[in-house]
Specification:
Helices cover about 65% and strands about 10% of the residues. By secondary structure, the protein is an alpha+beta fold. It folds into 2 domains: about 150 residues, no CATH class; about 130 residues, Histidine kinase-like ATPase, C-terminal domain (Heat Shock Protein 90), CATH 3.30.565. About 20% of the residues are buried.
Length: about 350
């Protein structure tokens, strides 16, 4: 398209100008251009085409000049000067080429001819300028929007990485504390716990912020529960019910873990934890229920873990998730529903 505009479009532009001028003049005067010598018509057409090459080249030069002067921000202060420059150069080239040619042909140059010959090229040039400049504005606007979207996306990814990183120290501290106490009592069990910890950390550290199969996330949760069962009190009663239909569907990773961590951290009373994950018509329904002591504060526990989870859900599933967490004596219940992506 650029090659067409630079090489062929000026010729078409000149033909359009010449045809419009002849049509107006011949309509007013009743003259018929085909009664003139064709050599004269071709000469006038050639002059019109050459003039058009000059006009469009000057127009592009003006556009480049003002583009270089305006590095950023609104173009409104320069737009009027740009239009005046384009109009002035157009009238200058018309008066240097087209008007002298018209004055030396046919019956000379009348005021009506002068007005027509000056106005038609100017109108067409301003229309061309408006088209080019509007395309430039649109392209600049789209480029700015793209940059803003990229910046916003990068900010979201940075925030997500930061929020995920905040889970790791707390989880790692608890797991290492478990292994530390196992070393004095059961070395093989401590080695097994370290293997589980290694597997869990590998999942956390090397998985990117991309959806993963639900089955993979649930396998991670089972490993986490097994490691937590080792360090928990023997009187803990843990119930796990994971829907086998949850398999190849996809979701963003490590969104379920904070609810489990919260349950193990605040479990009390009858020391019961119930974990359920089910496939519903709208996606995943995940529920964690832990018993609390009768004298536990009425305010919802969770601290930074639930706060970070809410922020991650807002970034990853805006307006497409539901998270509730609060006391339902004698339990504290957290429920999360998420839409699932197709495999």
């Amino acid at each position: 398209m650029s090659s067409f505009r630079r090489r062929l479009f000026p010729a078409f532009f000149g033909l359009l100008i010449y045809g419009t001028v002849r049509l107006l003049n011949d309509t007013i005067s009743g003259f018929r251009f085909w009664h003139r010598p064709w050599a004269l018509n071709l000469f006038e057409l050639a002059v019109s085409v050459l003039m058009s090459y000059g006009i469009l080249a000057a127009c592009r030069r003006v556009l480049r000049h003002f583009d270089q002067q305006t590095a950023a921000g609104s173009r409104a202060p320069h737009l009027a000067r740009e239009v005046l420059a384009v109009a002035g150069l157009t009238l200058l080239l018309v008066n240097v080429t087209f008007l002298p040619m018209a004055a030396l042909t046919d019956d000379g140059l009348s005021w009506g001819d002068t007005a027509t010959i000056s106005t038609i090229p100017l109108l067409y040039t301003l229309a061309y300028y408006g088209w080019v400049r509007s395309r430039h504005f649109l392209r600049a606007y789209l480029d700015r929007q793209l940059l803003l979207e990229r910046a916003a996306h990068e900010n979201v990814l940075t925030e997500l990485k930061f929020l995920r990183a905040q889970y790791h120290p707390h989880f790692l501290f608890n797991a290492l504390n478990t292994v530390y106490f196992q070393m004095d009592e059961d070395v093989p069990a401590a080695k097994h716990s370290l293997e589980q910890l290694s597997e869990l950390l590998r999942y956390q550290l090397y998985d990117q912020q991309r959806p993963v199969p639900v089955a993979q996330e649930l396998h991670y949760l089972r490993s986490f529960l097994e490691l937590q069962r080792v360090r928990s009190s023997e009187k803990l009663r843990l119930t796990v019910a994971l829907d086998p239909q949850l398999a190849a569907q996809r979701l963003y990773p490590l969104l379920l873990l904070p609810l489990l961590e919260n349950a193990f951290k605040y479990v009390g009373g009858g020391y019961e934890i119930d974990v359920r994950a089910a496939l519903t018509a709208t996606g995943l329904a995940f529920e964690v229920r832990n018993s609390v002591a009768p004298d536990a504060p009425a305010s919802a526990p969770g601290g930074i873990g639930l706060a970070n989870l809410r922020r991650r859900l807002h970034l990853l599933y805006p307006q497409r998730h539901m998270l509730s967490a609060g006391p339902e004596p004698p339990y504290f219940v957290a429920r999360l529903t998420l839409p699932l992506l197709l495999p």
